[in-house]
Queue: 3 jobs
Job 1
Amino acid sequence: RPERRERQLLFQYRFGAPGRLELTYPAAGSRGVGTMRWASTAYSGGGEMQIQFDNGGVTYVVYAGMYRTGFGADGKNNPVDELGVLALRSGKVISRRKCTAAPVQGGAHD
């Protein structure tokens, strides 16, 4: 009977312009095992996913969520997608950036 192995996914977060990356985590060639944390939750009419990691005294939270904001006059749900990155130092938000473009392929909203 073959050994059962957990599926291992590799993930790397990159921030910056093409050819001018400001942050790459984990660094190229590093597997970053155990350094990233994943969380997800379901909401009525949506849900949220997060990947969190620490780098240089800053905690980064990359998130993607769909939230129901109410119902229109026609009774249809009015969902809103929000994607972005929070940077926290000592638990306080020092930067909040919302994505304005579609997420990369392979993401939750493809």
Note: The first strand starts at residue 13 and ends at 17.
Job 2
Amino acid sequence: QHGRICDSTMANIFIIKDGMIYIPPLADGCVAGVTRQYILQNLTADFLFYERSVTLQDLKQADEVFLTNSIRGIQWVQKFNDSVYTNKLTSEINDHFLLKYKKDLSISEK
């Protein structure tokens, strides 16, 4: 209705442009995903996330795009229509996510 993108059918979306990481706010109608929430609560010391509306034009012009859900974790998007994305910062975020998650998992098992 408003030309915004808030998520995919089964995942939250993050876009990266010029080193800035953007995520649509819940107010735009995206699902309050578990992995989305975990990233925003646990990785903000390592990365800056900016909640703002994301448009189709933002998606087309992004340098990187990744999706998150509780089954697959972080999944890099390689291509959307004619846009091809890199995964440098996405890989760094994923590495931090996996380390933090495994650490939290081992603490909760004790």
Note: The helical segments are 34-42, 56-61, 88-109.
Job 3
Amino acid sequence: RFTALPFEHNLGVEFYSKVPDLKVLDIASELRTNARYVSDCIKNSTNYSFTQYVNSYRIQHAQQLMRDFPDQKISTIYIDSGFTNETTFFRAFKAITGMTPKDWKNLQND
């Protein structure tokens, strides 16, 4: 995990999962600042692109949903986490956790 960004306390994990097509301008508007500031903060603090940063929150949310609702279908999980399709969800999940959602879920049950 990386250092908290100056604006992170204003936005919760749920914020990132409610808007599937979230753009840096959306966050900037929410915070009443400019997109360049938000983008620079993310890159300088995390070394993530905006998309990687948002996806990291979405994956955290998906993991929490899988913990809280272990019988929930993955299709529901990825939609509720802000992903628009399964392929993008699986790709992001594997990039962030190093495993597939199914493998991660199985590991939680061991």
Note: The chain has a mean pLDDT of 85.
